């Protein structure tokens, strides 16, 4: 088993999902956020989820969701994990964890070293932290924009919870990302796209082959 694994996020077609499965993704991400070009309706999510074998984890990505949204998405896609990408408080994250009883990820937007300390607030509430690049204040999306933060901020950083790295990771820089940060799970979305929301099967294959080569 490889030391580093990968999540391909924002999948929306059978062809790109199949590419992620074929080339060894450990996790696949489905986005439930209407403002995103990667947004899935529940019927489409259900059809895609049915293609995912049991050894690959299905992660639903949400931004400040209400319980009705979570109920519908988790049921349709048989989610293994919920990734929260908004301004959810530790109390809200804990409540979602208790309601669903599945793995909960909390995205932490990072621009400076002080941002890393925010992760400690979610100890005991979330199961995994996702360190992602902080988007501009007026950005329409909280992630998936191909931005990266200074990975050296995570160099030697010790965090008590499992965590993953996101934000501008692609086939060309993932080895550097893993080497600098020590991340054992790399998450990409725009890094395997030909245009916003349009996944590329060749880029997915290249990314996952590069992960396998680490």
The total domain count is 1
Q: Percent of residues in beta strands?
A: 15-25%
Q: Based on DSSP secondary structure assignment, what is the total number of beta strands? A: 10
Distance between termini? 11 Å
Globally, the shape reads globular
Task: Give the strand order, joined by hyphens, for the main sheet.
Answer: 7-6-5-4-3-2-1-8
**What is the overall pLDDT average?**
93
CATH level-1 class: Alpha Beta
CATH-defined architecture:
Alpha-Beta Barrel
Pathway: Amino-acid biosynthesis; L-tryptophan biosynthesis; L-tryptophan from chorismate: step 3/5
Keywords: Amino-acid biosynthesis, Aromatic amino acid biosynthesis, Isomerase, Tryptophan biosynthesis
EC number: 5.3.1.24
Organism: Sphingobium boeckii
Short description:
Belongs to the TrpF family. This protein is of the alpha/beta class and 214 residues long. The protein is built from 7 helices and 10 strands.
């Amino acid at each position: 088993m490889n030391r580093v694994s990968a999540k391909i996020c924002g999948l929306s077609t059978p062809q790109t999902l199949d590419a992620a499965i074929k080339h060894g993704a450990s996790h696949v991400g489905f986005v439930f956020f209407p403002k995103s070009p990667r947004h899935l309706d529940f019927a489409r999510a259900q059809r895609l989820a049915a293609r995912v074998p049991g050894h690959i984890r299905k992660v639903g990505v949400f931004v400040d969701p209400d319980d009705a949204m979570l109920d519908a998405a988790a049921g349709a896609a048989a989610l293994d994990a919920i990734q929260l990408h908004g301004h959810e408080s530790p109390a809200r994250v804990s409540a979602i964890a208790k309601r669903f009883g599945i793995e909960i990820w909390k995205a932490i937007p990072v621009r400076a070293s002080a941002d890393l300390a925010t992760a400690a607030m979610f100890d005991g509430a979330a199961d995994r932290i996702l360190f992602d690049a902080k988007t501009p204040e007026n950005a329409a999306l909280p992630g998936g924009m191909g931005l990266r933060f200074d990975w050296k901020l995570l160099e030697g950083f010790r965090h008590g919870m499992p965590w993953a790295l996101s934000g501008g990771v692609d086939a060309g820089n993932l080895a550097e990302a893993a080497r600098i940060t020590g991340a054992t799970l790399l998450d990409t979305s725009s890094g395997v796209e030909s245009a916003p929301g349009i996944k590329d099967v060749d880029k997915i294959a290249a990314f996952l082959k590069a992960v396998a080569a680490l």
